[in-house]
Give the backbone structure.
Amino acid sequence: MDQFPKIPLERQVVSLLSRNREDSFATQRKRGYVLRETARALHERFGLQKFDNLKAKHVAFLVERWKEADTGRRSIDQNLTHLRWLVHKIGKDNLVPRTNSELGIESGPRHTRAGITVPDARFAEIVGAVTEPRLQAALLLARHVGLRFEEAMLFRPGRDFDGQRVWVKRGTKGGRPRYLFPYNERQREALKAARDLVTGDACLIPRECPTYEKWRQQCYRQLKAAGMSRASGVVFQDLRRTYACERMDCLIRERKMPPDRAAQLVARELGHGRTEVLRWYIADRGEKSVA
């Protein structure tokens, strides 16, 4: 794809992407492809020159265009995710509704192992088989705080946890920080275990490891040896799902919170702006589980 596009709107997309490098390289590539195609479509149909002039009618045009292309609901869902990223970056979040259903789009199937959770006994076996203390701490943060792998490894317990509030700032999807308040002792123990391993503002990645990617590869080899892999039926992300299901149960059954309100809170704690995504995490609120 041309690195120096002639269309002003497309050049603005390239500039936004170059200044915002959050998420994986694969996600950045997909985002760039979708948004540059979007810029060309808006320029061709409306002659739009800059995103400052983006309006609801332009969003409606894009949605109809994607529907007519008939590439499947998941494809439209992903395009809207990239579009939400764009409008957030230009300060026009309200142009795209928070739920796809408001646009007449039902969410397509997701391959997210919906509702799969890890029983405490199985989790204890995995943690016990891991020899690296920092990886053990990351497993605890995923299970009891709901962090993704990258979020856990880049978490700075001495800086991002003040004893009352947990801030998740680094490694988040879309680069959006979030916070949550620990509500049980196991969470506090997990945070303390992480804090005891580092000094100052350091994260869980050891200083002697040159890059995050090299550390990730080392960790994944250990996790596989400890029985955590797709082949064994348990993956790291299942710990995050386990947290989501447990948190929903706590809010609905113990605190008597209405399900819709509980879903909004848990989605925010997990870093999702839409409860539609949360449904694929919790399914039947954790009634399915890994043996």
Summary: Residues 25-46 form the longest helix (22 residues).
